Amino acid sequence: xxxxxxxxxxxxxxxxxxxxxxxxxxxxxxxxxxxxxxxxxxxxxxxxxxxxxxxxxxxxxxxxxxxxxxxxxxxxxxxxxxxxxxxxxxxxxxxxxxxxxxxxxxxxxxxxxxxxxxxxxxxxxxxxxxxxxxxxxxxxxxxxxxxxxxxxxxxxxxxxxxxxxxxxxxxxxxxxxxxxxxxxxxxxxxxxxxxxxxxxxxxxxxxxxxxxxxxxxxxxxxxxxxxxxxxxxxxxxxxxxxxxxxxxxxxxxxxxxxxxxxxxxxxxxxxxxxxxxxxxxxxxxxxxxxxxxxxxxxxxxxxxxxxxxxxxxxxxxxxxxxxxxxxxxxxxxxxxxxxxxxxxxxxxxxxxxxxxxxxxxxxxxxxxxxxxxxxxxxxxxxxxxxxxxxxxxxxxxxxxxxxxxxxxxxxxxxxxxxxxxxxxxxxxxxxxxxxxxxxxxxxxxxxxxxxxxxxxxxxxxxxxxxxxxxxxxxxxxxxxxxxxxxxxxxxxxxxxxxxxxxxxxxxxxxxxxxxxxxxxxxxxxxxxxxxxxxxxxxxxxxxxxxxxxxxxx
Length: 553
Ligand code: GLU
Description:
This protein has helices spanning 3-11, 19-25, 50-64, 86-96, 124-136, 147-156, 177-185, 234-244, 260-269, 304-310, 314-325, 329-335, 360-372, 376-390, 392-400, 402-409, 428-432, 452-465, 472-483, 492-497, 506-518, 526-533, 535-552; strands spanning 37-40, 69-72, 103-107, 110-112, 140-143, 191-194, 203-208, 212-217, 224-226, 249-253, 276-280, 284-287, 290-293, 357-358, 488-489, 504-505. Helices cover 44% and strands 11% of the residues. The chain is of the alpha/beta class. The chain has a four-stranded mixed beta sheet. The protein has a three-stranded antiparallel beta sheet with strand order 5-6-9. The chain binds glutamic acid (GLU). Glutamic acid (GLU) is lined by residues 41-43, 75, 238, 250, 252-253, 256. The site of glutamic acid (GLU) has 9 residues, from strand 10.
């Protein structure tokens, strides 16, 4: 045994498996040519962030587009920052927006797939096996420096270009086997460091799939691979995990871009085939002060739970994410109106280099479109599910008569040009409030040529003739028939030609009826509203309106 081999045994006596064992246990995946394997690898330190959902969507589409595999790995090596239910927050958050992994962590203590465990805290033995192998080859060494000693080094390096444990600062790099043994016997704790083969004068270049070609200095720092408790740092875990899980594409936040030279070096010393990298710029937001990052602290919409609570359907959020994910998505959508999102030919190269812009107005528009194409049944089902948790009043109105509720939601829907009033389920209660006595708030304000005096005349006439058995044509004929006796014209064009000859036109007549029945000047189809409200409510509301206008006129 040479000194390196002896050192490996000294540091890792408990490790009996070999790297070959794991290479065989996790063989190359049997996938079609060109299939990509990617993952979402969050730490369970808080709620799922919109940026996380965005990155996970990119990773998933990158795989589905090539019949590959998308998996979820939980990076829980920093137990101090972990929150209770952190794993469920991620899994449920992804699930709520249809980002279901093909394998990996599926829920608390629930993993699926042949390449696990997919939770880093369960992989200590694997990391240590690869660490032991590096020590055996003289590519890693134990470092006994205390926190104070490391602080001293940092202080000395204040003016240096390169900061960290390297060169003359790497005190433990060349300790002999005997010195190390003595330190360990004295009870000193150690971290394991990479013996970096980097050269300060050299540069590496790599092709980032989003940002293009990047050139950076080689890594020369002897970074920590294992902490004193034998748990890996992100860098080491990333290399070991993404190799053994046979990841082909690492899609992650661009805060990691500065670490790529180190990661490429780690893959090399470990003898792994390098992965392809795609670094995503943070989601931006524009406010009074200009562009800034979407902030967990300042922006409620940064948490994906916001969309759930507000009742944005997952279909809308996914559709919106795609509009900001790939610049050509909207053109594709126009050409493929009904296509499933999973068939969009997603391309990493079409992602924003500087950071996609989050825009609530756009999300609202996208969502209005998405909801307008849903069948009433679906709108009812989804919004009822939402209401049970977030709007008890809406849920109980629905429960009075679900067929009535569905019929309301069907007004001006399921036709060629559906109305686009609803952006989220929390809009519904206000939108349909006049359809229920419990929530109807009369408001007799008029618009256009409709005056209170005209309203008195119109309602007096309409009360006499209103017939709930009318079909739509008959209903409209009745509206028109009222016009002449009250001094209006049924013909809008005619009114425009000679406005002084009339008190108003058929539009004003129907506005008066609309306001009386709904308290609003703008509603979906008034004929259907009238039919659904039923004779009793219609007459009662007309009477009340008439009384009001008579008193006011
Ligand atoms: N746990 C790392 C993070 O949350 C993952 C980065 C990666 O995807 O490799 O930033």
